[in-house]
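Hey, quick one: can you model this chain's 3D structure?
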Amino acid sequence: MTTEELKKEDLAAELSSRTDEELKGLLEKLCIEEEKISYKRRVLHGKIDILRAELVKRLKKKRKRGEKLFTREDIEKLSEILARGASGVSKSSLEDEELF
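Sure thing. Here's the predicted structure for all 100 residues.
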């Protein structure tokens, strides 16, 4: 049984027909899958933290030099991003995009 098969409406009936060993095997597979997903999430959060720290460092340097922190282009990009979010771009449509 795959994780996709777990989405069936008759999940309870499907599981009730399985042996204890089959259920333990399925549980082990799902735990391994969860660990992989959790690891990927932690890696992504680490990359996000690094990128944010770099941006903050750059903004502080700009401020020290007396430069504007945000340009007209920054505001336009933000507007585009917000407009896309409002138009229904879902998080799931971005799941398979590679950031690095």
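One thing worth noting: The chain has one domain: 5-88.
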